[in-house]
Amino acid sequence: MFLSAISQPLLVGILGGLIAQGMKVVSFLLLEKRINFRRLLETDGAPNMHSAAFAALTVAIGSSRGFGSIEFGVAMCFTALVTVDMWNVKRAASRQAEMVELLVQKLRPGALARGRRALSYSVLDVLTGTAIGVVTALILG
User: What is the pLDDT of residues 8-44, one digit of tens each?
Assistant: First the structure.
């Protein structure tokens, strides 16, 4: 009952994000030879879940409502904002974290926890997420 009340483009968008998160677990398994389910909840790295979800939603809206529709135009604007912001905001947060770490190292050498990594998204992370979203929508649409 509940799923029938949810629009098909929304389901495609959610699925696009879930696929991107699942791929993080698979890529970690292939690279590290062990499974890490925490990657399902982590928001950094490739592919970017946010860009995957929004790209899938946008393409699904375009497929169902038309690529010239106002709904597609609004979704496209939101997708562009999300993808650009994901890269820029995370990049800025990563730079800030690096500066704080340098400051702490100078003031108290050895005080930082080992194995920590700053959050960051590269253009490739965002583009792979976007590609996954588009492909998901095209396959399901």
Answer: 999 999 999 999 998 888 887 787 788 877 776 776 7
136 — alpha (psi -120 to 50), left (phi > 0) or beta? Answer: alpha
Structural domain boundaries, residue 55: 2-79+122-140
- pLDDT of 99-114, one tens digit each? 888 888 888 776 655 4
Count of domains forming the chain: 1
Q: Is residue 93 part of a domain?
A: no
* Residue 21 maps to a domain: yes
pLDDT of residue 84: 87
Using the Cα atoms of residue 139, residue 73, residue 10 and residue 64 in order, give the sign of their dihedral: negative
